[in-house]
Amino acid sequence: MSASDAAVLAEVGVYLGSLAAGDLAERSRQGLAHDAAGWAVRKRGLTGRSSARWAGSITKATHDQWALARRGQAAYLGWLRGQIACIEARLARPLGAKADKRECLPRGYASRGEWHAKSRRLQGLKDRLVVVEADWKAGRVHVVRGGKRLANTRHHLEAAGLDAAAWRERWRAERMFLAADGESGKRFGNETIRVADTGQVSVKLPAPLAHLANAPHGRYVLDAAVRFQHRGQEWRDRVTANRAVAYRIHHDTARGRWYVTASWQRTAAPMLPLEAALARGVVGVDMNDDHLAAWQLDVHGNPVGEPQRYFYDLSGGAEHRDAQIRHALTRLLHHARRCGAAAIAIEDLDFTDGTSREKHGRNKRFRRLLSRFPTAKLKARLVSMAAEQAVAIVAVDPAYTSRWGAQHWQKPMSTPRRKTSRHDAASIAVGRRALGHPIRRRTAPPPHHQSDGAGHRTAQARPETRRREETRPHLPGPRTGCAPPGGGAKAGDQGAQHRSGHPVEQQSWQQDSQ
Question: What are the tens digits of pLDDT across the range 21-34?
């Protein structure tokens, strides 16, 4: 882009950013007293200093930002209360006491020094809770336009590898406002930031900056054209039909480039019935901190083909992590389409409280492992991406999938040329649970002779069988001929030697007790 275009966009973005900052401050002062009438007053005040459409975009972005801060405040409030309750419960226990799951009692702290440190932390958390509760009742939120992290970087320029001028340029770019919502029926789907099907970009200038216009009706047309590599044809179809498209222009100071982001809302896909989604089998997926393990299963729960692994690296920044997750999910969806499966089964994991030190103690490595699990972002991204490919997502209970998968499927699925991992076996367990089949492979009683006429000894409980994933009931008394003479429930019973016909032995091999 030319220097003149960059200068005009920067001036417009800084001016609209100042209006957005003032509107956010006004919205925060209103707190819980805000209503539709207050929104209309704010919009009328901004219309005279910009335009009606710019005022609508600014007030909508302000409302969304305030609502996001409010949700974050509610999450932080719940986290504080959970931490306080957990520490108080552990402080009430004796030093070195072990946890009692039956009585729901946590373990005590290991030493007097740790107990004292936790009591001090408890007081600090209670003080923070009082402040947050007061803000919550008053409807007061704390928002930093430009980002709190970047604001704190100003005090650590050497560690960030920046100087004052570079930081100031990045700070100004982050506080710009160049975003406009689309309108169906208008020319190219947006009157404020208009992008033609040829890639030409024109911006409606605010009233005080109308002297910068180089086109009629107070518009500024950029010399450079834009090009959308991802879903470019879909975007072109929308703008040709004058359907709504929202745009956001932002400046990347590190690369010295300007970017245009286009977004639109698609019609919600109809929900596929579970029976229809599972009619062609399923692809079971086991989520891990560095890869996705997937295996295709047919309708009977049998693994088909070879296991697949899709690796990603979550050690970089937010954009790098997001791209890694997106690429892994793209490969997973392509695999599901090639297999002909209409559903993907995943575990319904939730580690919202799993990274707490009070829950896992000093096991820092395990807490970091849980922190790296992209559960919420991965599930949200997978659902949205699967809707584009007409693939259903089935979330299952994650209980014992890794343990039972490794116990019952890792060894049978291993061959001299294929090393089945624990995660591959867990993906089979996830898929079988989604299909309604039991995970564990149970053995039938031995046949009455050594030939193979009785068939395979593996018996599976049907999906409608009650308690099919529980252990077999243990019957009292010895079940072999190793009992001492005259002892045991079957002592002197000659029928016990004939295992295939003995009623007690037949009952002990039932898969479920009714």
Answer: 999 999 999 989 88
